[in-house]
Amino acid sequence: MGIILKVENLSVELYGETILENLAFKVEEGEILTILGPNGAGKTVLLKALLGILPHKGKIEWRQGVKIGYVPQRLPFIKDIPMSVGEFFKLKKTSDKITRDILKSIGLAEDILRKKIGSLSSGQFQRILVGWALVSNPQILLFDEPTTGVDISGQESIYEFLEKLKEERGLTILLITHDLSVVYKFATRCLCLNKKLLCYSLPKELTPESLAQLYGGEIKLYEHSHG
C-alpha cells in the first residue's frame, strides 16, 4: 500500500488558454478515484497530463517503476479497420497464452478472437479496449468515460466488471465519469474539477450544494447501495 501518484501545483495551458490551474491531490494504491466535472472542465486534459502526453507545469510524481494502462474515451475509427480481435492484440506482440488469459479476465470467450472488431457490440468493444490496456500488466488504469457509446443496459455491467478487475489484479483506477451513482457505488474517493479543483473528498462528503457549484443549477443526489 501507500501513495502511487502525487500531484502538486499542476497547471496546463494550451494555445494560450489555461485549462487546468494549480491542482493538488494524491492517489493511494488500490483506490478508485472518480473525476467529476462538466464538459470542458479539463478532465481528459488531466489524464493526458498525468500520462505525459501534454506539457504541464507543477509536479506529477508516479511511484517509481509503476506501469500505467490507459483507455481513452473514443476510438471509433478502430471499428472501421478490417481487423479481427486476434489481429488487434497481435499489434502489441502478445503471446496466444497472454491473450487467452486477458480474455478470461475481461469475461470474453476465446472464439471472439476470430470476430471482426466492427462486428462487436459496444460493450464487447469496450472490454476489448480494457483488455488491450492490460497487456503490459499495469498496476494503475486510467479510464476516460468507459461507458461512452455503451447501451444503458451494459453500463452497470462495465462498472461492475471494472470493480471485479480491480479486486482480481490489485489495480488502482482513475475514472472519469458523468454518472453520479458510480461515485457512491464504486469510488473510494472523488475529485471535482472545473479547471480548478473544487473538491477532493470521500464520496459520502459530496453534497447537492457542492455538485450544484460544480455543474451549475440544482442537483438531486441519490445514494445507491451495494449488492
The total count of helices amounts to 7
Please write the string of helix (H) and strand (E) elements: EEEHEEHHHEHEHEEH
Broad structural category: alpha/beta
The CATH superfamily of the largest domain is known as: P-loop containing nucleotide triphosphate hydrolases
Q: Can you walk through the features of this model?
A:
The protein has 227 residues and is an alpha/beta fold. It folds into two domains: 1-66 and 139-227, P-loop containing nucleotide triphosphate hydrolases (Rossmann fold, 3-Layer(aba) Sandwich), CATH 3.40.50; 77-136, no CATH class. It has helices at residues 43-50, 85-90, 96-105, 122-134, 152-169, 180-186, 208-215; strands at 3-14, 17-28, 32-36, 57-62, 68-71, 140-144, 172-176, 189-194, 196-201.
Name the descriptors.
227 residues, alpha/beta, Rossmann fold, 2 domains, six-stranded mixed β-sheet, 7 helices, 9 strands, 31% helix, 27% strand
Brief rundown of the structure:
The protein has 227 residues and is of the alpha/beta class. The protein has two domains: 1-66 and 139-227, P-loop containing nucleotide triphosphate hydrolases (Rossmann fold); 77-136, no CATH class. 31% of the residues lie in helices and 27% in strands.
